[in-house]
Amino acid sequence: MNKNLHKLIFCRVRRMVVAVAEFATSHATEPGSGTGVGSLPVLRAVACAAMVLLGTASTLTLAQIVPSAGSGAQVLQTQNGLQQVNIAKPSAAGVSLNNFAQFDVPGKGAILNNSPTIVQTQQAGYVNGNPNLAPGQSAGIIVNQVLSNSPSQLRGYLEVAGPKAEVVVANPSGIVVDGGGFINTSRAILTTGTPNFGANGSLAGFNVAGGNITVQGAGLNATNVDQVDLLARAIQVNAAIYANNLNVVAGANQVDHNTLAATPIAGNGAAPAVSIDVSQLGGMYANRIFLASNEYGVGVSNRGVLAAQAADLTLTSQGKLVLAGQTNASGSISATARDGIDNSGTTYAQQDVVAATSGTLTNSGVLAAQRNTTINAGSVASTGTLGAGVNSDGSISTQGDLNVIASGAVAATGRNEGGGNTVIQGASVNLAGSNTSANGVLSLAAISGDMNLANAATTAGGALNASAAGTLVNDGGKLSSGGAMQVAAGNVSNAGGQVVTQSTLDVSTSGAINNAQGAMQAAGRESIGAASADNTAGRIVSLNGDGLNVTTTGALVNGAGGTIGTNGALGISAGTLSNQGQLTAATDATLNAQSIDNHAGSVVAGGVLNATTAGALSNAGGTLSGATTTVSAASIDNTSGDIEGDTLAVSTPGALVNRGGKLTQYGAVDQSINAGGALDNTGGTIASNATNLSVNAQGITNDSGTIQHAGTGTLAVTSEGALSNAAGNARRLL
């Protein structure tokens, strides 16, 4: 009909306003009708009858929306060919229940008439009032319940004419959305459940026992709707969904209308393997997204895009959660799954990420947040990136804590980065080859097993705490901190590794420490404690004056090329001490062991050197040197060795062997050398600047040896037994 040659009149037959030719009038008497009045009723009747026939024909020929018998709803056609549903009278609670044998929305859309009077729509222009509605009466919720064996096809926009309302499409046989959307709708619910109603006609919720919702092709655009809910046993997303607040609840559930709280119920037939499946072609884009799969053992999979663009993203699964696509939120991401989480895509939140599962969290992608990232899992297996304080450009800020906690094993061999603090804890912890860092405090704990940091770079800007009930392995790795470092384990292996701190260092173990070719270094005080320790070709050093203490209940081996040293005082207490390397102290050094083997080794102290053992002391080919040197042992072997000091005291209840060796005092303090057994100075030298020098032994052999006194006092050489001085020299220098 030509839009310029028609007008609206009231049709008594249809009892509504209709569009007719410009020359026609309504049945009501119009002022100024003038000549030709007798012919006008005929024209009016014809026009009105034509409209009635048009409406009837439309109802018969278009079968995309078909009311059930006795539904209370009628389906008409608008002037531009859209289907118009005059909804049923609402209940006292404002709910209009409409039953359909078929409910399909074509691409050009459909109208749900919620107005008792003529009203303008976006898709159909003006439509007549709904005769099922009393004046001032409109529905707050429009329920479209489909009783069919076929799924509903939503390929266009479903528009509410009149006051805005909530729209429900419920079809237990399923719903397919391909270009669907809503207009003038406050909330949209697509469900395969059966609606439940309260005693007053209110909508209580839905019983979802089966059925699928599929979004495909042109997808679902609901950005003009406050809230969109998809409630089905299974939901397949093969195209984009756009919404403001999007809620997706899957599984066999009784779902509360107001809260969407889901209570599991018995489903029809076998459960699907995956209840929410977002394919590579699919995506959910909304301000806020909530996804929940409540059916036991049924998972959720995203291989496309989940994007909460203004708020939070919540994912819940009673099965496994698979994140293989892009999962991101402008707010926070909460991911919870009973049977595990598998992230091979990029999961990123501009606020926090919380991932929780009683199963295994597997990560080969990126799991990160601009603020905090918290993982609680049965076990963790990550070869990708776990991050907190990660900016959108990939840089790391100085805030944002990374917490990875598992009741079982943690294996995180990729990148583990915390802008603030980082905590990684599990029954066992494997960070081998990883880059693990915190700008703040880094805490690593293997509660009941081993910790593997081999070939890893493990760094803290602040303090670092690493503990393991079993063995802590840092072979070839670098463990470093800007703050205090504490390492505690059943055993520690740092072969070829580095344990370095700009502050204090405490390493303690009830078992063995292997630092062969490794380094344990502190800028401040350092303490090493173990049952045994091997520092062959290694370095255990403290760089400032706060000192270094090394304690073992068993053997302490500082093999060839090894260094144990400090710019402060050195304290060594061991079951047995074997040093073929270097022990150095800028101030004092104290060696206390059941036996001391310093053959070919060097012990040098800038202050007092006190070497004490209840057993034998061997300094064959070695050096014991201090400002004040005191050596006490059950027996002393200084063959080809040097024992020296400004002040020197050497005593043993047993034998003192100085064959080819040197016992030298440079200062003037009185000196005594005492041996309860024999003194063998064959080819050796005892030289002293002491005021008085006293050499006492059970027997003395000085063959080809020298006992030389350069002090101002007396030289006394006393032998309780034999004294042999063949080619030897015992004299006081004037």
Automatic annotation (TrEMBL):
<dbReference type="Pfam" id="PF05594">
    <property type="entry name" value="Fil_haemagg"/>
</dbReference>
<dbReference type="Pfam" id="PF13018">
    <property type="entry name" value="ESPR"/>
</dbReference>
<dbReference type="InterPro" id="IPR010069">
    <property type="entry name" value="CdiA_FHA1_rpt"/>
</dbReference>
<feature type="domain" description="Filamentous haemagglutinin FhaB/tRNA nuclease CdiA-like TPS">
    <location>
        <begin position="79"/>
        <end position="200"/>
    </location>
</feature>
<dbReference type="InterPro" id="IPR024973">
    <property type="entry name" value="ESPR"/>
</dbReference>
<dbReference type="InterPro" id="IPR011050">
    <property type="entry name" value="Pectin_lyase_fold/virulence"/>
</dbReference>
<protein>
    <submittedName>
        <fullName>Filamentous hemagglutinin</fullName>
    </submittedName>
</protein>
<dbReference type="InterPro" id="IPR008638">
    <property type="entry name" value="FhaB/CdiA-like_TPS"/>
</dbReference>
<dbReference type="InterPro" id="IPR012334">
    <property type="entry name" value="Pectin_lyas_fold"/>
</dbReference>
<dbReference type="Pfam" id="PF05860">
    <property type="entry name" value="TPS"/>
</dbReference>
<dbReference type="InterPro" id="IPR008619">
    <property type="entry name" value="Filamentous_hemagglutn_rpt"/>
</dbReference>
